[in-house]
Amino acid sequence: MRRVFSSAKAHPYDKVQWTTRTVQMKNALGEKVELANLEFPDFWSQNAVQIATTKYFRGKIGTPEREYSLKTMIDRVVDTIQTWGEKFGHLATRREAQIFADELRTILLHQKAAFNSPVWFNLGTRPDPQCSACFILKVEDDMMSILDWIKTEGVIFKYGSGAGVNLSPLRGCREAIATGGKSSGPLAFMRGADSVAGMIKSGGTTRRAAKMVVMNIDHPDIVDFIKAKQEEERKVRAFMAAGYNMADLNNDAWNSIQFQNANNSVRVTDEFMRAVEHDGEWSTRFRTTGEVAETYRARELMAMIAEAAWESGDPGIQFDTIINDWHTAANTGRINASNPCSEYMHLDNSACNLASINLLTFLCDDNTFAVEDFRHTVRIMILAQEILVDGSSYPTPSIAKNSHDFRQLGLGYANLGAMLLAMGHAYDSEEAAAWTGALTALMTGEAYRQSALVASIIGPFPGFEVNREPMLGVLAKHRAKLAEIKAEHLSESAVLAAAKDAWDGAVIFGKEHGVRNAQATVIAPTGTIALMMDCDSTGIEPVFAHVVLKQLVGGGYMKIVNQAVPRALKTLGYAEKEIEEIVQWTEEKGTVEGAPYLKEKDLAVFDCAVAPSNGKRSISWRGHVRVVAAAQPFISGAISKTFNMPHETTPSEIMESYMLAWQAGIKAFAVYRDGSKSAQPHVTVSGKGGSQQPAQQKLKLEPNKRSLPRTRSSETHKFSIAGHDGYLTYSIYEDGMPAEIFIRLAKQGSTLAGLLDTLAISVSMALQYGVPLKALADKYIYGRFEPAGVTENPEIPIAYSITDYIFRYLALRFLSKDELFELGIGDYPHNADLALEVKALPDAVVSSEKDTAPKSPSHRVVFADTVCRLCGGMMIQTGSCRTCLQCGMASGGCG
């Protein structure tokens, strides 16, 4: 054990400048609470401060037990790990223990790496903390086993983690049971488990429960499983057509939509994929007898999967043969399932604790990579995670036994996309693939090398001898894959040389001593912890957008350009003046497209996961496949990744992507087609306009203006949209309805002032001549243009434009609940008749365009999880989960 980041002469905390910060958060009652005098380093952004304070600081607010300093939070975790390391024999001497603790403290303090959320939630707060984020459960074709599965999931969710299970052992709905009837089938039990998950907030208060349900392609109920979420998505469309606002995830209507707490994946074998290739047949088989249930064209089943994913984003695909070919404990049992985000894949009834390294912190100013610092960080984090295995608690004895016998770890990384951007490499490029492969190889090679060294001191994992052949065989396969990295596309040779050295050590020491951990690395989505590390991209993902909202210390937000953009421009050789103008253009337009001085050949470097609102470019799904394929041969487990596809993608193209992913050796593949989720803020209610025609006819014939007295009542409402403050003043008639409005922004140019004045005059005239406020609101709400973003109004947490905010505010202030319901905002009445009518809607309401998707959609469809249910911020895909860019709320259990 040696010091790299710390010094024996000074405490890690003494080397940084500490500042006091203030954070606003909501208590259990939903009330705003201001926490002042919080202690954080000066280089931590306000957003990272907000994440740490609201998600990970422990103790009841207002009590002495409440954490108010990052020092306390880090010490709580590091001190516990150090104590356990000494207790379990990992840290042999007091000096070694102190060096380890100082190095780990420095790594966490400087945002070089972070543990998964359950460690921050639970470590040091209770004697038996649950520290693993990922669990894989087992269920058998027995009622007690099914009930135990649901109970165990609930316990896992309670402490902030996620779980996956393969339901293929359960008999199909057409199979008989002992009492003479028919089985309920897996989907019936899925509904029950999904409802339980929906009732439990993961980690107590801050996260939604996360679950994965897997079914093998030969199960007799596979067609129902494939279509399960597709059918629920059609229900969402039906509710929207009936007038329900399904953009609000807190709307009670969502309680009628099933399977919303789980990611679904179909397990396919190489045999099935070859049948698809050659247009062969595929048979499903009854679980009780093994007899053929149905025979399909393999392509027919694959087309069903592609069509369902096109329409709803589910199911994903897991390539069973590839997964088990890389299995390190194959002699103990096969891999049947994964965690919710599909990065942890190992034995049933097992667990994995995760951590992620912030790659960008190892990129030096001259764009060289700090190889030895990175290797040291891997060693420290692997040792810390290994110690956590023995100190953690587990929800069942069988999970505890497998966790101790196989000691699965999941070290990964975040900020790859931002690092590639800073280096001037397009995400979809040979250079990006080479760097991804080399860095991933270095990480996993060093992790297994460290695992073998730990094994030389305290022994290999107990299941090693039984699995010596598959374990060492997989290590050899990893090392052999180094030859496929294209060294000519690396700007420096040190990374690949270090990777070869690490893998040589892993294989040699592994043969001599065994390894301490059956699994060492995965790439998780890293949603919340990536934000706490101030990452500009999560997991293996590319940069999501170049213009982001930055939280300010004094409250509010401002738009800033991603910090990697100017660095990339400098790397590409642009002058300072050119960089300034390109950055200014990007901030104003939201895209680099059309920026002055920017060369056409450099545009690809700045491509993001999705096209910006004012741009057309985005990374091709093939580019995503290329990067994941480069990393997968060097990862113990799998990779959680969103394969983004544009709105106009067809099911046929999705089917093609499945074939390419399989051929590339990827273990898990899930697509998100832009706009595949139909729930969106703007709800058009059919049949509501007819009653307005007589009123409009009357206005034409009798244009009577309703005058205001010289002295009239008025109210002024202050608002803030993405840091832009403004004031809305409205005069009120004696009957309580609005008569005129005035709009003023705190900072505005003459053009914007003139436009707002013109709008206010037009609206005031309309109100005075009898145009209903509801009719005006219907035209203006949800219109999209800048400034847009987070507001300070809990009733309107996010505004899509100034006019959107103003008319939603006026509607909430003056209209009835029934009128709000018809507009698709506010609280909604429970209407049993309307709910019943949903079932009787014609097929046209729920039909999808499939292969005839429009090439140029007139608007960008916003799927339900775009808006965070806690703060109203933007939700982005992080692997198979979604994470809020503002508050860090995650829909999964892997961050």
Automatic annotation (TrEMBL):
<dbReference type="GO" id="GO:0071897">
    <property type="term" value="P:DNA biosynthetic process"/>
</dbReference>
<keyword id="KW-0846">Cobalamin</keyword>
<dbReference type="GO" id="GO:0031419">
    <property type="term" value="F:cobalamin binding"/>
</dbReference>
<dbReference type="InterPro" id="IPR050862">
    <property type="entry name" value="RdRp_reductase_class-2"/>
</dbReference>
<feature type="domain" description="Ribonucleotide reductase large subunit C-terminal">
    <location>
        <begin position="132"/>
        <end position="672"/>
    </location>
</feature>
<keyword id="KW-0560">Oxidoreductase</keyword>
<dbReference type="InterPro" id="IPR013344">
    <property type="entry name" value="RNR_NrdJ/NrdZ"/>
</dbReference>
<dbReference type="Pfam" id="PF08471">
    <property type="entry name" value="Ribonuc_red_2_N"/>
</dbReference>
<keyword id="KW-0237">DNA synthesis</keyword>
<dbReference type="GO" id="GO:0000166">
    <property type="term" value="F:nucleotide binding"/>
</dbReference>
<keyword id="KW-1015">Disulfide bond</keyword>
<feature type="domain" description="Ribonucleotide reductase class II vitamin B12-dependent N-terminal">
    <location>
        <begin position="20"/>
        <end position="111"/>
    </location>
</feature>
<dbReference type="Pfam" id="PF02867">
    <property type="entry name" value="Ribonuc_red_lgC"/>
</dbReference>
<comment type="function">
    <text>Catalyzes the reduction of ribonucleotides to deoxyribonucleotides. May function to provide a pool of deoxyribonucleotide precursors for DNA repair during oxygen limitation and/or for immediate growth after restoration of oxygen.</text>
</comment>
<dbReference type="InterPro" id="IPR000788">
    <property type="entry name" value="RNR_lg_C"/>
</dbReference>
<dbReference type="GO" id="GO:0050897">
    <property type="term" value="F:cobalt ion binding"/>
</dbReference>
<feature type="domain" description="TSCPD">
    <location>
        <begin position="710"/>
        <end position="811"/>
    </location>
</feature>
<dbReference type="Pfam" id="PF12637">
    <property type="entry name" value="TSCPD"/>
</dbReference>
<comment type="similarity">
    <text>Belongs to the ribonucleoside diphosphate reductase class-2 family.</text>
</comment>
<keyword id="KW-0547">Nucleotide-binding</keyword>
<protein>
    <recommendedName>
        <fullName>Vitamin B12-dependent ribonucleotide reductase</fullName>
        <ecNumber>1.17.4.1</ecNumber>
    </recommendedName>
</protein>
<dbReference type="InterPro" id="IPR024434">
    <property type="entry name" value="TSCPD_dom"/>
</dbReference>
<dbReference type="GO" id="GO:0004748">
    <property type="term" value="F:ribonucleoside-diphosphate reductase activity, thioredoxin disulfide as acceptor"/>
</dbReference>
<keyword id="KW-0170">Cobalt</keyword>
<dbReference type="InterPro" id="IPR013678">
    <property type="entry name" value="RNR_2_N"/>
</dbReference>
